[in-house]
Amino acid sequence: MLLPEEYIEQAFFFESFIEAIDDGTPTQEFLFSIRGELLSTAQLYQAVDFMLTDIKYTGVLANSASRLSHYFSPFQIFVISESERDDGRMDFKIALQILAREAKYRSANPPTQGVFFYQFETICRNRLGYVRGLDMLINDDFYNADWKKWLTILRRQIGFVPLADMIFYRSEYYKIYNSYPQTYQQKNINKLKNHKHENIENSLNVSNLNDENLSDAVTLFGEREGRIAFATRNKEPAYLFAALSRHLGYPSVPRKKNIVEEENIIPVLKRRIEQLENRIQLLEEEQRGGIDINKYLGER
User: Which of the chain's termini has less CB crowding within 10 Å, N or C?
Assistant: First the structure.
């Protein structure tokens, strides 16, 4: 974990990087100029100085970021690397937005649960691969031994056991749910049966979580996370992330918007008008007695 000042500087660095891309500023020029704006006492100042030297030889940021693993987190290195892959799915500008929002969130000493949901949603939405993504989280010292143990279980069972179930079984709400079986369990079973759901009893057991002894498992999520996970079971994970963002204020992952900008429409309209004018001119010449092809050949 870094000091909050470091994360504030990182958020400023990534946001300024986005503005430089919009302005068409080359990366080397941006890295050189941003040093003057960063706090000279921050470790990021030295990191940018190293990145500026390294990028002259490699042409990418992932190489220098990976060599600064004592400063940049595994999540940051992973996102930068994925955005610079030739066959990658992630846009570099979106990667910077993701890193900027994460750094700003971590500057306020957030709960571990909030950081996990943000990082895991990044993996899911950008299709970065569960295995490589969870390996990255397991190697992050931000998570303690209990979290790493659960992340290892999640890595093995993701795709077989719904994410909402695994969160629910590791939450405070699961204890409340089991302590009042008539109030919570039977009521929900009857409610679901009325909606003609099949195998309700089987869907509410934990027999498929073979890697965990839930009676001795460490609780990692609070009551509200567990309640939201229970309410979004058998639904798309995106609904779970959206609900957590609405109710608990966890940050949502930036997404690429397919918006056609006005400055791109005007040149297209101009070209189409010119084409229409040329066609009208050809029709008028043909009506007058024919088209003089030599005129167009002479222009070549």
Answer: C
